[in-house]
Write a structure and sequence with these properties.
With 111 residues, the chain is an all-alpha fold. It folds into two domains: 1-49, no CATH class; 53-111. The protein has helices at 9-20, 26-32, 35-45, 55-85, 90-109. α4 packs antiparallel against α5 (90-109). The protein is elongated.
Length: 111
């Protein structure tokens, strides 16, 4: 779930699968990527300074990004239900607000 919607999601998923199969190496990863994925990896690898310096920091950022996408989706659904009529969908809206608040607290824990 954390990788869904990320431009590098398929690359990270492949790297995880290769690692689980004990077949991970940069060369093995690159040979299995599409041209677009290989270009993305090459562009990331050519950056002067990494955005994170350890796997834990990377994982935290990926989880926070997923939470941000989910948060935005919850807000879109709240907006949609409010447009349809807040009175008619009050309990659904309340449940979405509760999920949104819980998600906000989880996101704060990932910062």
């Amino acid at each position: 779930m954390d990788l869904k919607g990320l431009s590098a999601g398929s690359v990270l998923d492949l790297a995880r699968k290769l690692n689980e199969d004990r077949g991970f190496s940069p060369a093995a990863l690159l040979e299995r990527l599409t041209m677009a994925e290989a270009n993305l990896v090459t562009a990331i690898a050519s950056e002067r300074e990494p955005h994170v310096h350890d796997a834990e920091g990377c994982t935290r950022i990926i989880r926070r990004l997923r939470c941000e996408r989910e948060y935005a989706e919850l807000q879109r659904e709240i907006d949609r239900l409010q447009e349809l009529g807040a009175k008619a969908h009050g309990s659904e809206i309340d449940a979405l607000w509760a999920r949104k608040l819980d998600l906000k607290h989880r996101m704060e824990g990932l910062i």
